[in-house]
């Protein structure tokens, strides 16, 4: 599997990272805590009507955010804080289902990846998650015009998904740098395919996924989120999945399960 070698002094950083992961586990996994299905269940008496989006595969795209080793492989650098959610959500098998169904239906499939180059580590303005990501060296690449060291690295795509991503048909957008697609070419590529509906899956639920949702909505796309095909960190600051689901109930045109989405793709 990919190397975990870091380019900065490793001992203090690894110690702090493991302490953060342990703290998150103790904070969010107390004895008697509610099961994830109960935690993420919709309210019994909602005040808002659910989105009425009807999938039209010929003008829709499956958008997969950050299907990369550092998030989705147990040896990935972010696994200590995202692994619990990835496992609970059954993210990997759900993404398999969605990739396969989208390909079978002839839908556009697009990837919005996250890559960092050495100059990105010199940013003078950073938020907390940016500091964290740069500190552990997540999604690092040698540069945009070389694949040296990329194959099998944390920035590479999860091997199980390469059959779909590298089939010569999938759109691989330029990388997003923070959370949303504003600085990559994803929206441009989708418009060029006459896409005006997007189904969004991937990571992180409350950061990149939510930022993509908000930007697509502002651009006039019809947006659905697959609620059990997203995952996020669980930290003392809060459960990212729960935070995202609350906002998606307010905003998304559709909030579906994997099984519901696959059935719609087949129709």
From TrEMBL:
GO MF term set = hydrolase activity
Q: Which Gene3D superfamilies match?
A: Isochorismatase-like
Q: Which UniProt keywords apply?
A: Hydrolase, Signal
**Which residues constitute the signal peptide according to the record?**
1-33
Q: Does the keyword Hydrolase apply?
A: yes
Q: Does the keyword Hydrolase apply?
A: yes
The protein's name is Cysteine hydrolase
Task: Name its species.
Answer: Sphingomonas crocodyli
